[in-house]
Amino acid sequence: MLRSYKGITPTLHESTYIDESAVLVGNITIGKDSSVWPLVAARGDVNYIKIGERTNVQDGSVLHLTRATTNNPSGYPLIIGDDVTVGHKVMLHGCTLGNRILVGMGAIVMDNVIVGDDVIIGGGSLVPPNKTLEAGFLYVGSPVKQARPLNPEELAFLKVSAQNYVQLKDEYLQES
Ligand SMILES: CC(C)(COP(=O)(O)OP(=O)(O)OC[C@H]1O[C@@H](n2cnc3c(N)ncnc32)[C@H](O)[C@@H]1OP(=O)(O)O)[C@@H](O)C(=O)NCCC(=O)NCCS
User: Which residue segments constitute the domains of the chain, with CATH numbers given?
Assistant: First the structure.
């Protein structure tokens, strides 16, 4: 499930859980207590992927990035912060996500998107390239529109969701 590319193998904190059916290739770093669930494909080949702490990437999600070019010398890596929940079958491509974010099931987040802290992206949403999502808001639709500020329960839920997955991955680690 862990493959090297050009001599670089994913670097995982010892507390991470990676399902054995997930495929992680190349320049990928994953922080403490994060988890990667069945059938995730993450390819850190022509740029890098960095995932923070207590973040979960759920089943069937696809993570990739964009190479550097003359016009775009850094390309677009994929950077995901702490306490982020990436729902089932999400596509994250060359974007930057802050902390305490829920990316709803089946959402697509494209190149050079910046997502602020404490954001929910509704299931099935499309975030087009180069868009910035403001901290503290719900975004839904295709293309996404800002729907409303998150309420206190939703803001609290973002951390609860991440914590639930830390507990779940600990249970899975005990089984393996
Ligand atoms: C986005 C979400 C949190 C909104 O929940 P909610 O509390 O029902 O939101 P609201 O009732 O305030 O809805 C605001 C508007 O957005 C619409 N809406 C809600 N979810 C939507 C979605 N995913 N896509 C498009 N529109 C959506 C609502 O119909 C409503 O429209 P209206 O004002 O025209 O009636 C929820 O629908 C969602 O998508 N959750 C994702 C869950 C998930 O994928 N979890 C990860 C796996 S564990």
Answer: 2-175 (2.160.10.10)
